[in-house]
Design a protein that fits this description.
Blueprint lengths: L1 H83 L1
């Protein structure tokens, strides 16, 4: 009987602790939602700047890729000529 009473008391304490932890979690989630909402304009601005950067650099990156392809073709050609001798 004592064991059963101790189990019930323990269960009641656990339920109370669960309520406290649940409330703390709800507050943390609310704080997180608030922080995400507040940071959204900065994130949107950052994404816009990244898109602009990618747009501006794409022609240069394409040109670099073209030059690399030409250089590799020339290296391959010269290697082939060297190997034939």
């Amino acid at each position: 009987m004592k064991n059963l009473l101790n189990s019930i008391k323990s269960l009641i304490n656990d339920v109370k602790n669960l309520g406290t932890v649940s409330q703390s979690l709800a507050e943390s989630v609310a704080n997180l939602e608030s922080a995400v909402t507040q940071s959204k304009p900065q994130l949107d601005d950052l994404q816009k700047k990244i898109a602009e950067f990618n747009f501006k650099t794409q022609p240069r990156l394409t040109r670099i890729q073209e030059l690399q392809t030409k250089m590799q073709a020339e290296i391959d050609r010269l290697t082939q000529i060297t190997n034939q001798k």
